[in-house]
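Hello, quick one for you while I still have it in my head. A protein chain has come my way and I'm curious about its shape. Can you walk me through what the tokens say about the fold? No rush at all, and the record is pasted right below.
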Amino acid sequence: MPKPELDQRYSSPGARPPKWSEVEAVLVAAEMFWLSTVRGDGRPHVTPLPAIWYAGRLHIATGHGEQKAKNLAAQPHCVLTTGTDLMNSGLDVVVEGAATRVTDTETLNALAQLWKTKLNWDYRVGDGEFVMAGDVVAGVYGITPHKVLAFGKGEPFTQTRFRFESSE
């Protein structure tokens, strides 16, 4: 479990960092995230999409021809963010990490069930990927966190970093 590092410069006086369990609860409950990747020419690409927190990683599904899939194939480092649009309440979470394709049937079956339970999306598992209605296929990526930032909004304001073993 990562340890919190509260940044006093950007936190209210006397503030305490959130517990990892609170941050993880946001990752589990959130339906929408913003994925930031980098195109081959260095320009950023940002898109909203649902993600599933499972086994210590955020998971996304995307068609093989989509820009985000192309970007991740060339450069796996990415950022996923979630939170609220409110200034004085909530907890915004930023996950920095690297994406890898998920192809094992057991994990894909578990993720398909989570997508169904959380979002009522019907994915079938076939040949190392998700299959949707009309036989459209999607690759599944697991984003392993290197660093997670948590921004508590409202008194007390907090800015907390959680580092993972593979962090830079």
Residues 4-163 form a domain with the Pnp Oxidase; Chain A fold (CATH 2.30.110.10). The helical segments are 20-29, 67-74, 105-119. Residues 93 and 150 are 5 Å apart (CA to CA).
